[in-house]
Amino acid sequence: MKTSTFKTIFSLIILFALFAGCQTNQAYLQGGLKDLPYLDNTQTRSISAENITGAKGMGGMAIPDPTEKKPAASGRAADILGQGWKVKPFLRVNAGETTTIMDVDGPGTIEHIWMVEGLSRANIIRIYWDGEATPSVEVPAPDFFAVGHEKFARVNSQVVVVNPQNALNCYWPMPFRKHCKITFTNEAASDLDLLAFQITYSIKKVAKNAGYFHAQWRRATTGTDNPYVILDGVKGKGRYVGTFLSWTQRSKGWFGEGEVKFFMDGDTKFPTICGTGTEDYFLGSYGFQEVYSTAYSGTTLAASDNGKLPNLWSLYRWHLPDPICFEKDIKLTIQALGWGGGKYKKLDDDISSVAYWYQTEPHQPFPKLLPLEQRKPVKKDQK
User: Fold this and answer.
1) Position with higher pLDDT, 165 vs 71
2) Nearby residues of 279 by Cβ (< 8 Å), 6 or more positions away
3) C-alpha angle 328/235/170, rounded to 5°?
4) Cβ–Cβ under 8 Å, residues 124 and 215
5) What pTM does this model have?
6) Residue of 262, 251, 270, 275 lying closest to 340 (CA atoms)
7) How far is residue 248's CA from residue 255's CA, in Å, rounded to a whole number?
8) Residue 25, pLDDT above cutoff 60
9) Is pLDDT of 6 > 50?
10) Were 109 and a residue from 55, 175, 208, 358 both cysteine, which residue would form a disulfide, CB within 3.0 to 4.6 Å?
11) CA distance 175 to 50
């Protein structure tokens, strides 16, 4: 082959690879910069306490009510300026109450959720798609936004952002075809004086091949449950897109040798995908030497530097450019495996998790959510 011909072929291969890479990157920039210049028939709506239905031209219409019992935090100022002047910016959710914070017909797609609630696992977010009887999302509010152990830590990722003091944001796209309902439950013994939130969504057609967003919370101790099960019982076609772990390390030494395994589409004893270690799965290496928060992965709580236990870890991994695709079923586990004395060792740790995925409906009902006393995290000063 002549040198000139070889160079031409090589150049074409490079151009094709660059073009394919560009197309692939654009495909993952859903709702991102590439779409901003293009005008279509999409309509934007946003739900907050000031417009609980999200209806057009219906925001900020609350009328001050001085007789209201137990108003939200700013309610006592509501009669100063009158209608249109921040009369109802927050909701109050009393002990034991459930309030509906979104209840709209489709088709549409949730594009952003912002929430301030207090960072308590007593507060539960549930999302129901298209009139389903059991929720597709059932997660303690802080954990849903990658805040572990009820302990604030900044997150600066592509789909979850947590800002001081406890501003919780997520950008997971959540399409629905017929209906969307979101509830917020306060299972604490005390009232929640201030629930602030804003849910922005678009009114537009949903593609036929779009899956529904799901998120599930679990917790177990690895003295009895090792490997720890992050997700199981999923039936249908879908894509696994994210993992968040609140890991309570209860023994000294390095805890992150365990492998992450994806069993899918009929796998039984052995998985199709098997990782090489905990810090490897969370895109680190040689331990978690420092806090980091990036677009796709992070460890957001600093390890103890004084040798005292427990160590509290908050770890996230988003599979955005690399979703795990399954046709029929999926199960995800992680080993609690440490290192000591020159060899691996099983650990008796406390792990809670949130799994995030898209799938076809109907979905299998989730395991029953643990009662509040079993959801409460181990605190740093506890033995």
Assistant:
1) 165
2) 256, 285, 286, 287, 288
3) 105
4) no
5) 0.90
6) 251
7) 10
8) no
9) no
10) 175
11) 24
Question: What is the distance between the alpha carbons of residues 105 and 130, in angstroms, rounded to a whole number?
Answer: 8
HEC readout, the chain: CCHHHHHHHHHHHHHHHHHHHHHHHHHHCCCCHHHCCCCCCCEEEEEECCECCCCCCCCCCCCCCCCCCCCCCCHHHHHHHCCCCCCCCCEEECCCCEEEEEEEECCEEEEEEEEECCCCCCEEEEEEECCCCCCCEEEEHHHHCCCCCCCCCCEECCCEEEECCCEEEECCCEEECCEEEEEEEECCCCCEEEEEEEEEEEECCCCCCCCEEEEEEEEEECCCCCCEEEEEEEECCEEEEEEEEEEEECCCCECECCCEEEEECCCCCCCCEECCCHHHHCCCCCCCCCCEECCCEEECCCCCCCCCCCEEEEEEEECCCCCEEECCEEEEEECCEEEECCEEEECCCEEEEEEEEEECCCCCCCCCCCCHHHHCCCCCCCC
Residue 351 Cα distances to 59, 203, 281, 291, angstroms: 42, 38, 16, 19
Share of the chain above pLDDT 90, in %: 79
The CATH 2.60.120.1390 portion of the chain extends over 40-210, 216-365+379-383
Under 8 Å between Cβ of 46 and 198:
yes
Q: CB of 70 within 8 A of CB of 94?
A: yes
Paired tokens of 30? 């859903």
Give CA 119 to chain center in angstroms.
14
pLDDT of amino acid 81: 80
Adjacent-strand bridge partners of 157: none
CATH topology of domain 40-210: Jelly Rolls (2.60.120)
CATH of domain 216-365+379-383: 2.60.120.1390
* Residues linked to residue 262 through DSSP beta bridges, in sequence order: 273, 332
In angstroms, the CA 299 to CA 149 distance is 13
Q: What are phi and psi of 9, to 5 degrees?
A: -65, -45
Q: Which two tokens stand for residue 255?
A: 């805890």
